[in-house]
TrEMBL record:
Keyword check for Coiled coil: no
Keywords: DNA recombination
Pfam family, one: Phage_integrase
CDD domains with a match to the protein in the record: DNA_BRE_C
Species per Swiss-Prot/TrEMBL record: Psychromarinibacter sediminicola
GO molecular function per UniProt: DNA binding
Domain Tyr recombinase as annotated: residue spans: 171-345
GO biological process assignments: DNA integration; DNA recombination
Stated name of the protein: Site-specific integrase
Keyword Transport: no
Length: 353
């Protein structure tokens, strides 16, 4: 994330992590260390306090203000551990940001309770968010991650969130149909940035964070064919190297402004973050009248279309960056069953009736 604020100093440490300090307004010699990164939802509060000459407590110190061994105490200690992992590039800052929002909810509702939580309580918290099933399941994931760490650190003996089932049984994002793709292209024709974004999604099957970062620095030539070669940002993903298909090559060439990334904002600069790009692309989707479609649905559409064309799970794994076959099976299972059923019925064609 690029950020430019008065008095904000960015220092790169030997480990490669970044540390943020702020010059106090009116006293350039006094610099205050920030204990949060720009991805933290409370970053601006910490920044403004530092500019005014006040130092905000580090997450670890916040644990000292909570009731010892309370749920709030545990959440603060785990957040401090996650900050260390982010600084060491062992965790994505977005994961920390998402989980922190759930821990803030836990503190508000149950912060003064003892940190040893029964499984029934986890299910009660989950069910309390049933109106938003995605959030309910993510809350359980956040609790499970915290208690997994707490068990390793010896704070508790059991993880109460292990085995708590998800309540969101849906199939996730809706795959775009051929008609959906055409409706988007009708509204955003070739030569527009929106058209290039759609084409990148479709012919790389990349996630939104990767699409926003892809650029000419990821191009390489293999056997005289131009490829895109990148490491997906999602932890555990395999490196992806795929040929640039003609529709994508044409969409890239149609852009008159060349920048660090293929996709540029209205000022000809890379999008500040995947969240900013995601909001921009969502607006373009709505302009095409596709309010219930998402960027991830294009990735799913690409997987299903590849399967329809005869691609195996392992073909799709190579494109999607999956490392386990069961992850790509969702794209092929329905198609393979349909194909097998058709072949089975063809075998009955010679039966006399």
């Amino acid at each position: 994330m690029r950020i430019n604020l008065p008095g904000l100093l960015i220092e790169r440490q030997k480990s490669g992590a970044r540390r943020y300090r702020v010059r106090v307004e009116g006293n350039k010699q006094l610099r205050i260390l920030l204990h949060v990164t720009p991805d933290d939802p409370e970053f601006m509060e910490h920044y403004r306090a530092a500019r005014a000459g006040f130092s905000s407590p580090a997450p670890q110190r916040l644990a000292d203000t909570a009731i010892p061994h309370s749920l709030a105490w545990l959440t603060y200690r785990f957040e401090a551990a996650m900050h260390e992992r982010v600084n060491a590039s062992l965790m994505h800052a977005g994961t920390l940001k998402q989980r922190a929002s759930f821990y803030a909810r836990l503190r508000e509702a149950h912060g003064d309770k003892h940190m040893v939580m029964p499984r029934a309580k986890v299910m009660e918290i989950r069910d309390g968010l049933a109106g938003t099933p995605g959030a309910a399941d993510n809350m359980v994931k956040a609790i499970r991650a915290m208690y997994g760490w707490a068990v390793d650190m010896g704070h508790v003996q059991e993880n109460p969130a292990v085995g708590v089932p998800a309540i969101n049984r849906g199939t996730g994002a809706v795959p775009w149909s051929v008609d959906d793709l055409q409706a988007f292209r009708d509204r955003h024709p070739k030569g527009t940035m929106a058209y290039l974004a759609l084409t990148l999604f479709m012919f790389t099957a990349a996630r939104i964070g990767d699409v926003a970062q892809l650029g000419r620095q990821h191009e390489r030539t293999i056997d005289r064919v131009r490829h895109l070669d990148w490491q997906p940002e999602k932890k555990g993903s395999a490196r992806v190297c795929i040929p640039i298909m003609p529709p994508l090559a044409e969409a890239i060439a149609a852009q008159t402004v060349v920048g660090q990334t293929y996709l540029l904002n209205a000022w000809g600069r890379p999008f500040a973050s995947k969240a900013v790009f995601g909001n921009w692309f969502r607006d373009r989707v709505r302009e095409a009248g596709l309010d219930d479609r998402s960027a991830h649905g294009i990735r799913k559409a690409a997987g299903e279309l590849m399967a329809l064309a005869g691609a195996t799970q392992y073909h799709i794994m190579a494109v999607h960056g999956h490392t386990q076959a069961r992850t790509s099976e969702s794209y092929t299972s329905g198609v393979n069953r349909t194909r097998l059923a058709r072949e089975a019925m063809q075998a009955m064609a010679g039966i006399e009736w």
